[in-house]
Amino acid sequence: MSTPLVLVHGFMGGSGQWNCLRPFFDGKLEIVAVDLPGFGENNRLTAINKIGAFADWVIEEIRGRGVERYALLGHSMGGMIAQEIVRRDRDAIERLILYSTGSVGTVPGRVETMEDSKRRAKADGAVATARRISATWFLQGEEAVRYKACAAIAELASLPAILAGLDAMEAWSGREALGDLDLETLVLWGDRDRTYSWEQTHVLWSEIPDTRLAVLPACAHAVHMEKPALFADLLLDFLAHQPE
To answer: How many CB atoms lie within 10 A of CB 237?
Structure first.
């Protein structure tokens, strides 16, 4: 098989959210999925409130698993973390996939402001917040086929991790350093994403030096759970592509 693909989930995500892709990758691609501190299976770890500190944690985690060279995918907040991983571990990374993400943490046009998200999380609690936010990731909301599975993973997040994650995104910007991402990059986005707009996606596509763009129709923020077969095909094609 080819170089492994490290998967970095987003805010209130977890390694389990990638399980729907495993049948499409079996025998074709090794995937290494992490659970960020405070989320998923690592929900008991101390929460991190800096995107750069998340990046440092991921690098240490995958080195501990014996991963020395890899392709890298970051989803949503994980895409911010992935950008910082590249800046720290460039020589180990072959290719980059930035999926439903952007170059700034405080996203114009986001479903709600960061302050609103923090206020509502404190008022509603972690579980209700997980269910509410997960619904925005799907075009069909709570009626989506994989909504319940996604929400169950999101519900594992602790309230401190939710608040710390929001703080981390709010304080981060990678816009001025996009030119430093000097490796072959796939920018992937669902055309009905309510978290990241086309304008944010266009910035990545136009300002990262070597990019390819994939826009998936009739998908929201969780493209990989809405159209897993198409998503997997795009990744396999990109990772198999030979440089000209």
So the answer is: 12
